[in-house]
Amino acid sequence: KIDLLNRQNKTIESMAETLFRQWFIEEVEKSWKIGVLGDIIELVYGKGLTEEKRTGFGFPVVGSNGIVGHHSEFLAEGPGVVIGRKGTLGTVTYIFENFFPIDTTYYIKKKNHSPGLFYEYSLLKTLSFENSDSAVPGLNRDIALSEEIILSPQSKRDEFNQCCVPLFKKIKNNLSQIRTLEKLRDTLLPKLMSGEIRVAV
Q1: What is the pLDDT of residues 73-94, one digit of tens each?
Q2: Residue 45, φ and ψ in degrees, nearest 5
């Protein structure tokens, strides 16, 4: 069931990516202007939080390759988008709830009204971020924000965000089921292995 839900989420994300590419890459209108990533978002540094200091429960702790733990406090309000700054550069993670991005990441702040951040998340996934900081290996914020993009009208972005609401709602529901099933699995498996619980044949 867990595997099925994970595969279903990947399929739903692919649907959103296909829609984004169709609307904002394949069907670009001549009136749309060229801008830079910094026109629509800001990149904010995450904060240091060592593994020893994490409480192990509460809000997701997000590293450069996704959720790496949980902590009783959060740094940013969800929904949010996190991008790898060091380690796994340019990996983009969508977070539904309040979260704690650590210092190997940036999290984004929107410059325009954009409920859900679905447009920004989808846009970032189409960009190729490479090691752009020669002094310290990592994703240079200024260079990343200067990445050229096509500036579509706000109304078009709003329409895309609205179309993504049911898709991401389904992903969120699936993730909730996955967490419940994982807790059940982690509780039952040791008892089954030890013989504390027996299954009738």
Answers
A1: 999 999 999 999 987 778 899 9
A2: -65, 140
